[in-house]
Amino acid sequence: MLWHVIRIGERGMSIDTAALPPTLVGGADSRGLAGSLPAQAESFAGHAVEHARVWSEWLTRWLDAWDRYDPEAVLALMTEDVILIDPGLCGEPAVGTPGLRAAVATLLRAFPDVRWELAGPPHLTLDGTSLAVPWRMRGTFTGDMSGGCSPLGMAPTGRRFDNRGVDIYELRDGLLSRWTSTFDLIELGRQFGMLPDPRGRLFQLGIRVQRLGAPALRTYFRFRDRGRR
Fold first, then answer.
1. Fewest CB atoms less than 10 Å from the CB: which of 144, 157, 189, 202?
2. What backbone torsions phi and psi does residue 210 show, to the nearest 5 degrees?
3. What are phi and psi of 208, to 5 degrees?
4. What distance in Å separates the CA atoms of residue 139 and residue 110, rounded to the nearest whole number?
């Protein structure tokens, strides 16, 4: 059961979830999306092979471009107004050909031996416009990330990594128009040798310090949020 009021801390910091505007996808809220599944499935049945063929051709070219370490071939598979949402960008999407060129260049510079592969079967949405792809990325952090589109301008550590995640691709006119990448940034930082093991003593010490400081943070945020009302 979803509580309409979520309380945090001792003195009633709260979010009135009933007052929050609904998240809309194509003008439909969560229940609307759920209710549309039968109609989408009926439409999908008549176009499944066509959708799958389009995605197969695009994804094969996508994999080939990365295997050849060819940034221009990667960019050629995107629209000019493409949007990339990635944890490494820290909440600021990369937008358009210039933004994606910087993102691709940073990745290939930082991980010059990167190997990107599918790690599970792709999942095609019922409307045929999006594809979710589980992936595995391996390589060595030997290149500098400074000067790229990410604020995480880290110096190379020389550490090898083996990371997994899921990408969601959206096509428009046969080209990638939106790319949403999801992965565990903390785990990747640990593999880079930049963050401690969450089960290790150093990380647990940090947790103890956070717990000691949490009451003061709750007080700070309570008064800050009150002043914004």
1. 202
2. -65, -40
3. -65, -40
4. 10
Phi, psi (5° rounding) for residue 22? -70, 150
Pairing mode of beta strands 175-183, 78-85: parallel
Tell me the C-alpha distance between 21 and 19, whole Å.
6
Instruction: Read off φ and ψ for residue 33, nearest 5 degrees.
Output: -65, -45
68-73: long-range contacts, CB 8 A cutoff, minimum separation 24: 69/108, 69/112, 71/101, 71/104, 71/105, 71/108
Q: Which two tokens stand for residue 29?
A: 């809220």
State in Å, rounded, how far the first CA of the chain is from the last one. 28
What are the start-end ranges of the E strands in the chain? 5-8, 13-16, 78-85, 94-95, 115-118, 123-124, 130-140, 160-172, 175-183
Task: Give which of 88, 95, 170 is closest to 137, Cα–Cα.
Answer: 88
CB 183 within 8 A of CB 163: yes
Three-state DSSP state, 133: strand
Q: How far apart are CA 193 and CA 65, in angstroms?
A: 29
Render pLDDT for 186-212 as a digit per residue (tens, 0 to 9). Answer: 999 999 998 888 888 988 998 999 999
**φ, ψ of residue 164 in degrees (nearest 5):** -130, 150
Helix (H/G/I), strand (E/B), else coil: 16: strand
Strand partners for 84? 94, 179
Q: pLDDT digit string (tens) for 84-110?
A: 999 999 889 999 999 999 999 999 999
Separation CA 107–CA 99 (nearest Å)? 13
